[in-house]
Design goal:
CATH class: Alpha Beta
CATH superfamily: Ribonuclease Z/Hydroxyacylglutathione hydrolase-like
Number of strands: 12
CATH architecture: 4-Layer Sandwich
Number of domains: 1
Oligomer: single chain
Largest sheet: 7 strands, mixed
Radius of gyration: 22 Å
Number of helices: 10
Amino acid sequence: MKRVIVLGGLVASGVLSITLAAFQQPAAPMVVEVDKIKDNLYVMKGGGGNSAVFIGTEGVTVVDTKNPGWGKPLLEKIQSVTSKPVIRIINTHTHGDHVSGNVDFPANVDVVVHEVTKANMDAMRTPSGLNPPPAGPTIFQRNEGRGLPKQNFKTKMTIGSGADQIDLYHFGPAHTGGDAYVVFRALKVVHVGDTFANRDLPLMDKNNGGSGVEFAKTLMKASTQLKDVEMVINGHNPTTTTIADLRTQAAFVSDFVKFAQAAKKAGKTPDDVASTWKTPANYKGYAPPQAARAKSNAQVVFDETK
């Protein structure tokens, strides 16, 4: 009887639940991997979109900050390669796997985005009008607006000069309506975010201003206007690519859009597109098609095609 009483007391006090919790599997470690691509430029991978870390004269510029909870390990990894402070974050677009880590950086860090992305991110602070509505409080609600943009641009913005120069461009709607291309001018490197996430069908996010019909045009415009750029940092691809690869991605997206438009003209549905679209054989190294992505993108193209 004494043993029963003692056990009951342990349960009531929470000691037993703590003991049982000790036997649960630990959470997977949050590991940020680092690729040094130039003397003062790193790509930090894992936990969401690829982050670019540019070490300038006065401090560090970070492009994209990953999923919720990944800002701190990202910041710790940055501190392992430089003692300079982070002075600026540039978000390529509004999605949570690229902006959520903003909240873990010091409050005095400047945050720069395209004007459409600013509106999209501000809506995450007061998300009653978001479509679809969030299941719970957004990352910016939970952190009282910390990490939201402080500066924005429309078509082009230049930050710094000489070896520190960063040029920001917007070439039109694609993945979202506010995609920023971030050029590290002296290094001849551009971060293109999820306009070219990887060698696969991109997400055409119409809820945040993205476009199917304009997507390939925007990529081609970027590939022709980004002069002297030799290396491309993608939104998620594990290795860097080139401007020629960006043009290939534009052709790939264009082929899909034409396929979807032909299907609509023939009286078919987005489901039909999803079940019949195959990655053309000439796109070497491209991922097999994802039916759900093909269907959602086809719907965007159908809606935009009269």
